Amino acid sequence: MILALLIWAITIITMALFVSGKWDFPFGASSHAATVDHQYYITLVICGVIFFLAQMALGWVVLRYRDRGKAHYSHGNNKLELLWTLATAVLFIALNVMGQRVWADLRFQGAAPGAVQIEVYGQQFVWNIRYAGPDGKFGRTDARLMSDSAGNPLGIDPADPDGRDDVVVPTMAVPVNRPVQLLLHAKDVTHSFFVRELRIKQDAVPGMAIPMHFTPTRIGNYEVACAELCGLGHYKMRSLLAVLSEEDYQKWLQERAP
Ligand SMILES: [Cu+2]
């Protein structure tokens, strides 16, 4: 009897914590945030209702059959097993099909023309952000020229004129309401570029250049965190993303010109 009450109590407290909204997402600051949140809440509500009913039923069975005499052993039921396996499969496949639309759009479709082009490089344990500078062209890079101590962590080739005005900084700024095209790289191990308010989380994988785009809709400072355990210093691998007005963004870029 105590076990049944405990199961019910834990279930109700857990549900109440979710419903209270205390640990909800922070506000969304990108154009796709509402779609991601909508998909998340559909999943949460469906799973929440099923979880609640299943736990309540579990408590009821514990209470109802607490005397050994009432319960009897059964060999299982193939029809029921088939039913809940199929129901679960249909539910999860449907949720995936619904969710992949926004996921794929941000990764497989390019950003709108005129998007701000930014390269993101993850390495143990910092982020380096590269802008193409006034010429709009990224300079050539060469892994053999990479040197943190010489101030060239990305290995930009000094012989290439396209690279001379490239801006490489440890923090990121983007103009509000303009599409941004990111290209993610990793120098050593897998990292993950994560900004909560933008609803963006994407792995940066060594040897790959992974595109991703978004449009920031709210001016402010947001934390960039590494969301992939990448070594002993993983906890301090963070940066800052500033969403600025177009004017402030241009000023920010100019101040950092080499
Ligand atoms: Cu990392």
Describe it.
This protein is an alpha+beta fold. The chain folds into two domains: 2-65 and 78-108, no CATH class; 116-255, Sandwich (Immunoglobulin-like). Helices cover 36% and strands 22% of the residues. The chain contains four helices and ten strands; from the N terminus they run αααββββββββββα. It has helices at residues 2-20, 33-64, 78-108, 246-255, and strands at 116-123, 126-131, 167-169, 172-175, 180-186, 191-195, 200-204, 210-214, 220-226, 238-244. The strands form two sheets. It has a five-stranded mixed β-sheet with strand order 3-2-1-5-8. The chain has a five-stranded mixed β-sheet with strand order 4-10-9-6-7. Helix 1 runs antiparallel to helix 2 and helix 2 runs antiparallel to helix 3. It starts with a helix and ends with a helix. Residues 122, 191, 226, 228, 230, 234, 237 line the site of copper (II) ion.
Number of helices: 4
Which strand order spans the largest sheet, edge to edge or round the barrel? 3-2-1-5-8
Helix/sheet category: alpha+beta
User: What is the CATH T-level topology of the largest domain?
Assistant: Immunoglobulin-like
> Helical residue percent?
25-40%
In this entry the ligands are: copper (II) ion
CATH class identity of the largest domain: Mainly Beta
CATH superfamily of the largest domain: Cupredoxins -  blue copper proteins
Percent in strands: 15-25%
**Overall pLDDT level:** 91
Under the CATH scheme, the architecture of the largest domain is Sandwich
Radius of gyration: 25 Å
Q: Count of DSSP E strands?
A: 10
- Shape category: elongated
Largest sheet: 5 strands, mixed
Q: Give start-end ranges of low-pLDDT stretches.
A: none
User: How many distinct domains?
Assistant: 2
